[in-house]
């Protein structure tokens, strides 16, 4: 009789464990995030459903964070000019327009295109400006977030940045 009770306890424990695992799996599958595309004549980006597209800006659903993408088509003579040769002029222009921002960091990146990232800070807001160049097209992607959300969202933003496709006169 004792052996039967012990076997039932083990069986009951296994059933409860399996049911718990099924509940966890179902919960995470219901929270599945799907990818969306935004595309125009100059670029394409992929973003997940934690962001809403409003007025050509991505706005995060749970914070005031946003991503704005601007592009500039340069004269054809800039096709063979490397971004490193014009980055100082571009940053000067950005900093002139945003005088209250303090530059925290600047680094060169090569994913997915030749580019630079610059981190600015003003009070409780951080702004990551990513500049990509392909041929004669410049893409400026600005991620603004309150300091408390910046670190939380940066991995998601990096995924969006890595999804960028720039279309140029070469297509």
Overall description:
- The protein is an alpha+beta fold and 171 residues long.
- It has helices at residues 2-30, 87-97, 147-162; strands at residues 35-39, 43-48, 51-54, 57-60, 66-73, 102-109, 114-122, 125-134, 137-146, 165-166.
- Strand 7 (114-122) and strand 8 (125-134) form a beta hairpin.
- The chain is elongated and about 90 Å long.
Question: What's this entry about, in short?
Answer:
The chain has 171 residues and is of the alpha+beta class. The protein has helices spanning 2-30, 87-97, 147-162, and strands spanning 35-39, 43-48, 51-54, 57-60, 66-73, 102-109, 114-122, 125-134, 137-146, 165-166.
Query: Strand-and-helix sequence, N→C?
Result: HEEEEEHEEEEHE
| Topology, number of strands | 10
Tell me the strand percentage band: 35-45%
Are there runs of 5+ residues with pLDDT below 50, and where?
none
Head-to-tail CA distance between termini? 79 Å
The strand line-up of the biggest sheet is: 3-4-5-9-8-7-6
Largest sheet: 7 strands, antiparallel
Structural class: alpha+beta
Rg over alpha carbons: 24 Å
What is the molecular shape? Answer: elongated
Nearest-integer average pLDDT = 89
Helix content: 25-40%
Number of helices: 3
């Amino acid at each position: 009789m004792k052996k039967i009770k012990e076997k039932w306890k083990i069986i009951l424990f296994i059933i409860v464990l399996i049911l718990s695992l099924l509940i966890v799996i179902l919960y995470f599958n219901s929270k599945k995030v799907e990818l969306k595309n935004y595309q125009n004549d100059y670029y394409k980006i992929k973003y997940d459903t934690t962001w809403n597209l409003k007025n050509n800006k991505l706005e995060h659903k749970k914070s005031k964070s946003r991503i704005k993408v601007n592009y500039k088509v340069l004269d054809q003579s800039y096709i063979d000019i490397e971004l490193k040769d014009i980055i100082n002029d571009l940053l000067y222009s950005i900093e002139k327009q945003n005088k209250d921002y303090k530059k925290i960091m600047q680094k060169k990146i090569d994913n997915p295109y030749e580019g630079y990232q610059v981190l600015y800070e003003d009070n409780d807001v951080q702004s990551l400006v990513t500049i990509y160049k392909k041929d004669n097209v410049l893409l400026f992607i600005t991620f603004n977030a309150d300091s408390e959300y910046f670190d939380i969202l940066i991995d998601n933003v990096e995924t969006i940045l890595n999804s960028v496709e720039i279309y140029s006169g070469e297509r």
